[in-house]
Design brief:
It is built from ten helices and 15 strands. It is elongated. The chain has three domains: about 90 residues, Periplasmic binding protein-like II (D-Maltodextrin-Binding Protein, domain 2), CATH 3.40.190.10; about 80 residues, Periplasmic binding protein-like II (D-Maltodextrin-Binding Protein, domain 2), CATH 3.40.190; about 90 residues, ACT domain (Alpha-Beta Plaits). A hairpin with a 3-residue loop joins strand 3 and strand 4. By secondary structure, the chain is α/β, with parallel strands linked by helices. The two termini are about 30 Å apart. The strands form three sheets. Strands 1, 2, 3, 4, 5 and 11 form a six-stranded mixed beta sheet that branches. Helix 8 packs antiparallel against helix 9.
């Protein structure tokens, strides 16, 4: 596959290995190959394993999903990032294009069951209903394709990527079977070392975490500096820390570089009302984000 890197680390810097969670042919694998076509992809059992691969040097980068336009955020990532010791060095948006896959020679009218991840099955309800297929939940999309290939049964189908069809020798019986055309997953690209883009460059993003003091209107006051300084906040997610209802941490994405005056002032004001502010990464915004903003 070919592609142009849309993240903060270029392919020339990243000729090596990029880790992802899942098996070969997963959408995370496709995202890696699209953003960094010169790198070898490394499948990992879990997000933690993918992060470990970067920490121990088995991989130079990790491609980790953080949110999907249909399913929302990926909960585990938000909890794992702050303590990972890794840095966000880029972002990538991957269009999710589900395909109906079958063994060689399979006919659509002979299919009886469709296997896939539960989220993927929820995104292809129309085709399942139209063809009268029984949905069967499996661990992941690419793994479903692998199972269908192993079974060799023309009555079994998988909902997975075109890459999975290529890897496991299946036929694409119907492409783009997803219910919503805007189905897109955003990924963080993680590295052991932070990226250091110049503060004068345009279209930069900053990802950071913070905790607010347990006092009335703390979050309102903490975020006020972003409004008064004209800093655009593109993401704000909250989650509990160590299972404590009174300890809430926030993960935030904003436009800009911490050394740019507006964001610097906003972060300074945030620190007055927070117990901790920690930057996880500064990186160029993906071309997808800029294009979407222009379209709006």
């Amino acid at each position: 596959m070919t592609g142009v890197p849309t993240t903060g680390v270029t392919a020339s810097q990243g000729v090596g290995v990029i880790a992802f969670q899942g098996v070969l042919g997963a959408y995370s694998d496709l995202a890696c190959r699209t953003a960094y076509p010169a790198m070898r992809t490394l499948p990992c059992e879990s997000f933690e394993t993918a992060m470990d691969a970067v920490r121990d040097g088995s991989a130079q980068l990790a491609m980790l999903p953080c949110e999907n336009s249909l399913a929302g955020r990926v909960p585990d990532i938000h909890a794992l990032l702050p303590g990972s010791g890794l840095f966000v060095v880029g972002e990538h948006f991957q269009r999710v294009e589900h395909c109906l896959l079958g063994v060689k020679g399979a006919r659509i009218e002979a299919l009886k069951r469709a296997h896939s991840h539960t989220v993927a099955l929820g995104q292809v309800r129309k085709i399942l209903r139209t063809l009268g297929l029984t949905p069967v939940v499996e661990a992941d999309t690419a793994g479903s394709a692998q199972l269908v290939a192993q079974w060799g049964d023309p009555a079994e189908a998988a909902i997975a990527s075109s890459l999975a069809a290529e890897i496991y020798g299946l036929e694409i019986l119907r492409a783009n079977v997803e219910d919503a055309a805007h189905n897109t997953t955003r990924f963080y690209v993680m590295s052991k070392k932070p990226a250091t883009p110049d503060a004068g460059l345009p279209d930069l993003m900053t990802t950071f975490v913070f905790r607010v003091r347990n006092v009335p209107a703390a979050l309102y006051k903490a975020l006020g500096g972003f409004a008064t300084n004209g800093v655009n906040m593109t993401k704000l997610e909250s989650y509990m820390v160590n299972g404590e209802f009174t300890a809430t941490q926030f993960l935030c994405d904003v436009d800009g570089h911490p050394e740019q005056p507006a964001l610097r002032r906003a972060l300074e004001e945030l620190s007055f009302f927070s117990t901790e502010v920690r930057v996880l990464g500064v990186y160029p915004a993906a071309a997808f984000r800029r294009t979407q903003g222009q379209a709006e």
